[in-house]
Structure formats: C-alpha cells, structure tokens
Amino acid sequence: MSEINSRKAAIVGCGFVGSASAFALMESGLFSEMVLIDVSREKAEGEALDISHGLPFAKPMQIYAGDYADIADAAVIIVTAGAGQKPGETRLDLVKKNVGIFKSIIPEIAKVNTEGILLVVANPVDILTYTAAKLSGFPENRVFGSGTVLDTARLKYLLGQHLGVDSRSIHAFIIGEHGDSEIAAWSSANVSGIPLNSFCEMRGHFNHQSSMNAIAEDVKNSAYEIINRKGATYYGIAMSVKRICEAIVRDEKSILPVSSIQHDNYGISDIALSMPAIVGKNGVEGTVPIELNGQEALALHNSADTLKKVIDDIWDE
C-alpha cells in the first residue's frame, strides 16, 4: 500500500456533482493533486482538461483522469458515482440502483487504499454510507457521508433571508435522513447565542410555528424544486464537499452534520444518519449531543426507522 498523500483527493464519478465538486476543490487550493475516475474514461479526461485550463487563475495542482490504482495514496476519496435523482423521484427511490453500483465500486477502492477517508456523496447518502462502511471494511470513523451539511446550509440561508442577518451567524442543524424524513432541530437553534424565537421577535416576527413549518418545508423540498427547474442539483453540494474537505485537510475539528453510523446516539444504533459530528483529519472524531425536545427526538427515531427498513430490505436480499 502507498503512503497516504494528505494533499491528494480522488473523485469517483464525474457527473454533475462529481465535476462541480472537482471544480470547487480546484478553486479551494486544498489539494495539490486530484484524480478523476468515471465509468467513461473520456468523460473524466474531458472534465480534468476543462478544469485544468483554469489553473493559471488558481493554485498549481495536478488534475488528471485515472483508474482505481491511482487512488492508492489519496487522503480523501469522494464517491459521487450513481444514478441521478429524476423529477418526481425521491432519494430513496434510487436505492437499489445505487447500492448495486456501490457493490462494484467500493471493493475496488478497498483493494488499493485502506488508509484514506471515504466521503460518500451519492444518494440516498445515508443508505450508501452504511453500504460503503460494510463493503469497505474501513474503520467507521473514516467512512461518512455529506449527510445534511447542504440541508443545514439551506436552513441557515433561508433563516438569514427571513431575519435579514448573515447566514453565518445562525447556528442550527437539519438532522436525521438526508431526505423526506429530515428534522429541523429548532429547539437548539440560535443566532449568535440568542435563542431563535427571541431573535425573531427582535426582528418583528411573531408567528413562530407557521414560519418554522414553512422554512423546514422549503428546506426539505429545495432539491425537488431545483431538479424540476434545471434537472439536477450540483453547486450547493459541491460547496458542501469543499467545506467537509477543509475540515479534514486542515484538521479543523469542525462540527458538521455528516452522515455516520450511530452507536446508541439518542437510542439509535447500526444505521447511518446525520447528527452534528466533530470532523478532522481522522474523519468523524465523535458526535455532538445537541439538545432535542421530545417531538424532535421522536421524529429522529422515525427517520432512523425509515432508513432501517430500507437497509433491512437491501441486506436481506
């Protein structure tokens, strides 16, 4: 096995999400080497060439198309490969197609690299994170998904718009499934330490429940709205991938709601879903037990049950 190169990333899958992520990572300057792998070598070559032509405006790096052998020393392996979500299709509808794809991809990765971090971005991300952990045999801290990092960014963006404040001053999480059973953890939400409802009232908003319901629905339906309008979502998730990679490469110990296998977290075990976690160079270094009210905790269990049923169906076959 090659020694891991902390400045090297691999992207498996060069569709909309993979290529947008490659572009975001090139712009970030985080890596000095990036290999792109796709079932169509020609597609990977085209993306690598196109992105490379912008390097004179960025920072020097090697970007090239490769195969699984080129992953051997990658510190972060970003898996975006899979069928995309079509209009009218839920993320869970994709499950059988994409688990099948992962059964061919993940063992190939594990053959050549056992020390890197596997970052799963393909959907349904929670099911595929669980699948990748089981198929790779990697320690669980080094296999996690982009989870609700993007959903949480959408929540912060919409709250920022609603309140007329910088979205970076808002501290709130979407947790659970990256999908239709996700939960907005309102009870722990705050704006620079001020409880959300108090801040809303300072800004002249008093219909808390109806506003919370409307914003949570908008977050949940964001992907569907974008897919209906332009056929796919990729810029937001690409920026989420960049943010997660920053936390890994810089060993930031950032708290991000990534999808990882839970162990008796709120009584939930042996399922991958999103809870705030400390992310650094070793991957997920621990989960953060944010306070949930009874309703939120129940919704989290329901989200876990939804995912558990799908996992049981897949792994019993």
CATH domain class name of the largest domain: Alpha Beta
The Cα radius of gyration reads 19 Å
**How big a fraction of the residues is strand?**
15-25%
| Largest beta-sheet characterization | 6 strands, parallel
What do the pLDDT scores average to?
Answer: 94
- Low-pLDDT residue spans: none
CATH topology of the largest domain: L-2-Hydroxyisocaproate Dehydrogenase, Chain A, domain 2
Count the beta strands: 16
Number of domains: 2
> What's the CATH H-level superfamily name of the largest domain?
Lactate dehydrogenase/glycoside hydrolase, family 4, C-terminal
What is the percent of helical residues?
Answer: 40-55%
Largest sheet, spatial ordering of strands: 3-2-1-4-5-6
| Total helical segments | 9
Globular, elongated, flat, extended or rod-shaped: what is the shape?
globular
Order of helices and strands: EHEHEEHEHEHEEEEEHHHEEEEEH
Could you say what the CATH architecture of the largest domain is? Alpha-Beta Complex
Distance from N terminus to C terminus (CA atoms, Å) equals 33 Å
The class by helix and strand makeup works out as alpha/beta
Draw up the topology in text:
Layout (H helix, E strand, L loop, with lengths): L4 E8 L3 H13 L4 E5 L3 H12 L9 E4 L8 E6 L15 H18 L4 E4 L4 H12 L6 E3 L3 H15 L6 E2 L2 E2 L7 E2 L5 E2 L2 E2 H7 L5 H23 L4 H15 L4 E3 L2 E3 L10 E3 L2 E4 L2 E5 L6 H23 L1
Parallel strand pairs: 1-2, 1-4, 2-3, 4-5, 5-6
Antiparallel strand pairs: 7-10, 8-9, 10-11, 12-15, 13-14, 15-16
